Amino acid sequence: MSRLIQGLVVVVLLVGLLQWLVPRWAGSLLAGELAHYDHGPKPTVAVSAVPFWDLLGGQFQDVYIDASKANLGGLTIQHARLNWANGGVSLGSLEKGKLVVTKPGRVTMTIRLTGAALSQFLAQKGNISNPQVTISPTGVAVHGRLLLGGVYVPLDTKGSLVESASHQQLIFHPTSIDGIQLPVLTDIQLLNLANMRLPIRLTIQQVHLESNQLAVTVGN
């Protein structure tokens, strides 16, 4: 085998190794930063960048993120799955522990929220005492005691979920109230993407109600 052929073999092997290593290195950096960002367990991150030297400039074809028990904006997310296509980040900033988006690309994320997580979130807001959120395919129910005029009164209501005009808030809109006659129907905000301080502005695209949990699809 000539030295030229030997050299070409070495180059091919080196390129193949770097093609395997560089995306994994970038994915590890991103996973570490996201774990600090969402205050949850370190997520699983897979980066696709061909050729790998595009990634050295922060560009990639796809990023897949799978996270559980993430806490964003005071709300615990049971599970989140994200696909980020044709985007870009600053690797220099990422190495320093800061996520800076240089190219938004196309982001689609599905998050799953449980009734227990929403109950805890409402309890933190303080307007409802001992809230219990129940989710079913036909709607949402909220039970507890509502602070009204400085006094807590029984709250037993069922309703639907609606999106705000900006498509960044998910709001519970009561359609029936038992136990007390309120002067007005009280909308309750259950999700606000703006409060999550995401690096890319996302909006709600679809909401699917399931048994004791809901799946929200968001994107840009």
How is this fold's topology laid out?
Layout: H1 3-38, E1 44-48, H2 53-56, E2 62-72, E3 75-85, E4 88-89, H3 91-95, E5 101-103, E6 106-114, H4 115-125, E7 128-136, E8 139-148, E9 151-163, E10 169-178, E11 188-192, E12 203-210, E13 213-219
Description:
The chain is an alpha+beta fold and 220 residues long. The chain is built from four helices and 13 strands. It has helices spanning 3-38, 53-56, 91-95, 115-125; strands at 44-48, 62-72, 75-85, 88-89, 101-103, 106-114, 128-136, 139-148, 151-163, 169-178, 188-192, 203-210, 213-219. The radius of gyration is 23 Å and the shape is elongated. The model has no long low-confidence stretch (mean pLDDT 81).
Keywords:
elongated; 220 residues; alpha+beta
Quaternary structure type = single chain
Ranges where pLDDT stays below 50 over 5 or more residues in a row are none
In order across it, which strands form the biggest sheet? 1-2-3-6-13-12
C-alpha end-to-end distance? 54 Å
Q: How many E-type strands? A: 13
Share of β-strand residues: over 45%
Q: What structural category arises from helix and sheet content?
A: alpha+beta
Q: Report the principal-axis shape.
A: elongated
- Sheet of most strands: 6 strands, antiparallel
Helix content: 25-40%
Question: Helix count, per DSSP?
Answer: 4
Q: Overall mean pLDDT score?
A: 81
- Radius of gyration, taken over Cα atoms and rounded to an integer in Å: 23 Å
Name the helix and strand elements from N-terminus to C-terminus, one letter apiece. Answer: HEHEEEHEEHEEEEEEE
